[in-house]
Write a structure and sequence with these properties.
Elements (H helix, E strand, L loop, with lengths): L3 E5 L3 H10 L3 E8 L2 E6 L10 E6 L2 E6 L16 H4 L3 E8 L19 E6 L1 H15 L6 H7 L3 E5 L10 H4 L11 E8 L2 E8 L2 H8 L4 E2 L2 H15 L11 H6 L6 H6 L7 H5 L6 E7 L5 E8 L9 E2 L2 E2 L4 H20 L9 H4 L7 H10 L9
Parallel strand pairs: 2-7, 7-8, 8-9
Antiparallel strand pairs: 1-10, 1-11, 2-3, 4-5, 6-13, 9-10, 12-13, 14-15
Length: about 375
């Protein structure tokens, strides 16, 4: 068994200070606009102490806990994707000269802060790994994408409670992080205790821990952490049967369930915006009002927008049915062919933040339950 240690709640700011001393910009959970989101934090006072989130299909609310847990919530609308793949990036800019010609495009200087991600859950670590394979695993990786992900220090937090839409156990992506972190914390509260059981995942994680007051974990500390892990695993709000799911979706491409979900889907793109692995982007050119300066920007897009599949003659996926089917089939099936894994990590964000509460797990279940029993004229 790997060695583990304990950091007391009163010493948590020392951990943040050790990261800042090494030049890291800490990105962690904080409360803004009625949600727990990821933003720059400087001290433990900015963390959502004593708050949790209540989640279900199309429903998200913050409420007070009966303790002062720093990480007593599931996941919010933000993911760390926004730092791996920013929602908007200027690719280049150029000026129009007096003859109407375009100057040589100039790429902006791209400076990537030395981030430390605080509070990353197991599902999010899996999502970051998936997104790295998508962005950097091809024949032509973007150096800017690589620069944003290199030298990131990750302080993972083992989930202390599951959300109403979580199903990471089904996807084998949580709730306990086993790799992909420098330090992993399990928050333990009770019997007037409040501390963190720490697992070291890298050499630099050990170096940071050395600068923070800590002690070796006792057997009781380890058992308390294991109890937290087991309790969370038993609390999943959803379940997804992934047995042969790729083949299931492939052979049900014309299933009438796609029409049923299309009657409810608003094609708003919320599910793709909150998803920690969706990576669709578009490129837009903009000019100033005088027509003297032009810029090219890369922005997040969604396969739910009709223009995303636009080709000469119109959109390849013009119906809501085809766009929802594309998203779900890609996420659970064709992603495996492209990138060697599922594109879903079971975080449940797409269910929580869908305004009409469309449930990915329920749609897959409905197709499985009627597999092979489709009406002949459907």
């Amino acid at each position: 068994m790997a060695a583990s240690f304990v950091i007391e709640r009163s010493d948590f700011d020392a951990l943040l200070g050790a990261l800042q001393h090494r030049g890291h910009t800490i990105i962690g959970p904080t409360i803004r606009d009625g949600a727990i989101i990821y933003d720059e934090v400087a001290c433990a006072a900015q963390l959502p102490a004593g708050w949790t989130d209540e989640q279900d299909g199309g429903h998200y609310r913050l409420r007070r806990r009966n303790d002062e847990a720093l990480f007593g919530y599931a996941v919010g609308p933000h993911s760390f994707k926004q730092f791996q793949l920013p929602s908007e990036v200027k690719l280049w800019e150029a000026d129009v000269d007096q003859h109407g010609g375009l100057s040589d495009p100039v790429e902006p200087e791209r400076k990537s802060p030395r981030y430390a991600f605080l509070g990353a859950r197991s599902c999010e670590l899996h999502a970051m790994g998936i997104l790295d394979r998508v962005l950097l695993g091809g024949a032509h990786p973007d150096p800017a994408d690589r620069a944003r992900t290199e030298n990131v220090f990750i302080v993972a937090v083992q989930c202390g409670q599951a959300g109403g839409t979580c199903f990471c156990v089904s996807m084998n992506t949580g709730p306990v992080a086993e790799r992909g972190f420098d330090l992993a914390l399990t928050e333990v509260l009770g019997n007037r205790e409040h501390h963190f059981v720490v697992e070291v995942g890298s050499e630099r994680g050990g170096e940071v821990l050395a600068d923070v007051p800590h002690r070796p974990a006792a057997d009781g500390d380890r058992r308390a952490a294991q109890d937290v892990h087991a309790r969370t695993a038993s609390q999943m709000g959803r379940e997804l049967d992934v047995t042969d799911i790729k083949e299931l979706l492939y052979r049900n491409y014309e299933h009438p369930r796609w029409d049923e979900v299309a009657e409810r889907c608003l094609t708003c793109g919320n599910c793709t915006m909150v998803c920690p692995t969706c990576f669709c982007t578009t490129v837009e050119d903009v000019t100033d009002l005088q027509g003297e300066h032009v810029e090219r920007h890369q922005r997040w897009d969604s396969c739910f927008t009709i223009d995303y599949s636009g080709v000469h003659g119109g959109a390849a996926r013009s119906s809501t049915r085809s766009r929802y089917r594309q998203w779900m089939t890609h996420k659970l099936a064709t992603w495996q062919d492209q990138f060697g894994s599922s594109g879903c990590v079971g975080c449940g964000r797409c269910i929580t933040w869908c305004p009409v509460a469309i449930d990915l797990t329920e749609e897959a279940r409905a197709i499985r339950e009627t597999d092979g029993r489709i009406d002949a004229d459907a």
